[in-house]
Write a structure and sequence with these properties.
about 160 residues; Jelly Rolls; six-stranded antiparallel sheet
């Protein structure tokens, strides 16, 4: 969805129903220290038809960082098979459970619980679960705001 719309995940969360003043705890007076806590029961999330759910782990929007829990159902993927995406920024991830396949350029990596990865988001990439259990991972993307995101056909020639 973010690929097709050319938006950051935070922009999608805002479009999902709350105004910036509702989701940006730093701008809401009277919240005190609670503005810095994101309760699990109150997380904003996005469900993709591709079997992926992203849950924001911050109580506010931040133009420079996306901090989320990524859940990949069995067969779920960040983009269709054979298509890689690229955008501005850098990505950091750690797998909590399951087995996550990560394609970066033409290299394929298989991450198991406790494994982590870093890559420049400008390099074409795809994340996918081809295992037999749900993948849960913590994911951070720095510097993606205003990204020029594109799908790229995977060609192994």
């Amino acid at each position: 969805m973010v690929s097709e719309l050319g938006l950051s995940l935070d922009e999608i969360f805002v479009l999902g129903g709350r105004s910036r003043s509702d989701t940006d705890g730093l701008d809401v007076p009277g919240r005190g220290t609670a503005a810095f806590v994101q309760r699990a029961s109150d997380r904003r999330s996005i469900e993709l038809e591709s079997g992926v759910r992203w849950e924001r782990l911050t109580a506010w929007n931040d133009a420079d960082i996306e901090f989320m829990e990524a859940i990949y159902e069995v067969g779920g993927a960040s983009s269709p098979d054979g298509k890689l995406v690229r955008h501005s920024g850098r990505e950091f991830g750690i797998v909590l459970s399951g087995t996550l396949g990560v394609t970066v350029a033409f290299e394929e990596y298989v991450l198991e619980p406790g494994d982590s990865i870093f890559f420049e988001s400008t390099v074409p990439h795809r994340l996918h679960n081809e295992g037999d259990e749900v993948v849960r991972a913590i994911w951070v993307t720095l510097g993606r705001y205003g990204a020029d995101e594109r799908s790229v056909e995977l060609d192994n020639r």
